[in-house]
């Protein structure tokens, strides 16, 4: 929300044809190329600059670009679905990691208790064997 309030979306025309993308970004998203665009600043003057545009955008085609508070073009804020997806993924990972740590602690405590229980059984059997009389055998 803070990112959304720190700038604005504008739809200026592309001033030069954008090249066609021949590669894809490492993240698997479509490549965003920069080319010339011209937009109107809040004070009414026309500003030109380089902005990320879709691949093969033709001159004169309107494109949606993000301007920060200083009026510089950028990629814009993250979409809400990306933010929610990241939150769900990190929450799930945290829950899974917490459950794994809890189960590991449970296994360690159980092993320690089993060790004491087996030692008590051994001591009990030894005490019973000492009490037995040789003629009972």
Written overview of the protein:
With 137 residues, the chain is of the alpha+beta class. It has two helices and five strands. The chain has helices spanning 2-5, 80-131; strands at residues 7-10, 33-40, 46-53, 65-68, 73-74. Strand 2 and strand 3 (46-53) form a beta hairpin.
Task: Quickly list its features.
137 residues, alpha+beta, 3-stranded antiparallel sheet, two-stranded antiparallel sheet, 5 strands
Outline the secondary-structure elements.
Elements (H helix, E strand, L loop, with lengths): L1 H4 L1 E4 L22 E8 L5 E8 L11 E4 L4 E2 L5 H52 L6
Antiparallel strand pairs: 1-4, 2-3, 4-5
Low-confidence segments, given as residue ranges, are: none
Which strand order do you get reading across the main beta sheet?
1-4-5
Number of beta-strand segments: 5
Biggest sheet, open or closed, and with what strands and sense? Answer: 3 strands, antiparallel
Computed structural class: alpha+beta
Question: What does the radius of gyration come to?
Answer: 34 Å
Q: Give the CA-based shape.
A: rod-shaped
Strand content: 15-25%
Order of helices and strands: HEEEEEH
Number of DSSP helical runs: 2
User: How many angstroms does the end-to-end distance come to?
Assistant: 84 Å
The chain-level mean pLDDT equals 82
Percent helix, as a range, is 40-55%
């Amino acid at each position: 929300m803070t990112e959304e309030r720190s700038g604005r979306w504008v739809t200026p025309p592309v001033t030069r044809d954008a090249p066609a993308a021949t590669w894809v970004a490492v993240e698997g998203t479509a490549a965003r190329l920069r080319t010339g665009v011209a937009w109107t600043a809040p004070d009414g003057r026309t500003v030109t600059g380089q902005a990320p545009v879709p691949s093969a955008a033709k001159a004169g085609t309107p494109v949606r670009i993000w301007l920060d508070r200083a009026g510089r073009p950028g990629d814009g804020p993250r979409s809400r679905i990306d933010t929610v997806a990241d939150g769900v993924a990190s929450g799930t990972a945290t829950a899974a990691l917490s459950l794994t740590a809890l189960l590991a602690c449970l296994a360690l405590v159980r092993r320690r208790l089993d060790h004491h229980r087996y030692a008590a059984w051994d001591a009990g059997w030894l005490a019973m064997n000492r009490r037995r009389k040789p003629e009972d055998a």
